[in-house]
Amino acid sequence: MLGGILFAALLAAALFSVSTGIALFVLGLLGYLVHHLRQMAALIRWLERGERGGIPRAYGAWDDIFYGLERLLRKQKRSTTKLSALLDRFEHAAQAIPDGIVMLNETDQIDWFNPAASRHFSLDDAADRGQFIGYLIRQAPFHEYLAGHDYSEPLIMKSPASRDVSLSVQLVPFGDKRKMLISRDITQIELIDSMRRDFVANVSHELRTPLTVVGGFLETFADMEHINQTDFRRYSDLMQQQTERMRMLVEDLLTLSRLESPQNRLQESAVNVPELAQSLFQDARSLSGENHQIQLFIECDRWVKGNPDELRSAFGNLVSNAVRYTPKGGSISLRWAVRGGEACFSVSDTGDGIEPQHIPRLTERFYRVDRGRSRETGGTGLGLAIVKHVLTRHQARLLVDSQVGKGSCFAACFPSSRVEEPPTD
Ligand code: ADP
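^ Those are the sequences you sent over. The predicted structure of the assembly is below.
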């Protein structure tokens, strides 16, 4: 009986301790779960707050996880900052590039463009992003170029923004079917190219005329069985005139090319302009052959810092033009004077004068108001181009004042920095 009671008591105790153990175990498990859930909730809150909050406090394995995550985030933040600085620099560089850049996606829609491209193609930042490039550049050659898939050579076209601007555009494929459209303003290059073509055409034309004349006479000589002395003298005089014309043209061309050569730096010395004016006065008298009244006014004793040969050639051209374009009986005056801070060598004449629309173009090569008159008097059409070059090299300017029927005044004016007192010795 006692054994039974003892057995029952032991069984009851055992049963009690097992259920308490389970209960304690369950309780412990629950506590552990709550801890993880709280840490997870803290992690979610922290992730939601993003960078603003610091790392939450954590225990055990969660501490390592939080710390690892924070390190990862910091690393990511550093590389994002680096990347955005790089992007900023790229964007600034692309904005400063004088060439236009348009980034196109795989269907040729605009992703991005720089300010130069906006100027070249009249693109609007807000409205044109995402647009098909062909809608915005509506020129047929560009559409053919875009569709052609051969982008090895650039396309020369007029800017959609202005017909006066010439562009060289080239597509550069990159990445996954993307393209970069690069544009360059070549207006100046085209202008220089067309000036070069005009110049060659003009020189050829100028040389062809005297060559044809000389060639014609030589053919005539070859066909003639006998030629009398008088005819021979007449023909040979005419041939000499033409060869002299060619020689003068070649001389002027060489002078211009020397003046334009970057290697030919200005060799300076002190130029006695009053003496130069005196010598040009004598030249004018002999050129005129007493056909004009010529006067000289030396109103100041200043010298000029410059190249004596170049100045003689420039002033000489002004003097010879006055003689050549002033009809017989007219007056010509040469003057060296100070005018409003500048020292000017001027040549005035009572010739026919020049209409105002021609004046800005007089210094262009081969520009003549009256082609026949220029040729008749042995002009090459390069005289005033030489004058302009010489004066530019001396920081001086050419002033032209002319009235039809009254006459002209051409003045070469030097800034005070080029003007000197005459030497005292
Ligand atoms: P050219 O050899 O033909 O004289 P220039 O370059 O010296 O060439 O002059 C250009 C043009 O300017 C001349 O063809 C002429 O029409 C005009 N010109 C120059 N000087 C005078 C002047 N003193 N009076 C009238 N026209 C002038």
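The chain is about 55% helix and 20% strand. The pocket of adenosine-5'-diphosphate is lined by residues 317, 321-322, 325, 349, 351, 354, 362, 367-370, 374, 379-385, 408 (CB under 6 Å).

Shout if you want it in another format.
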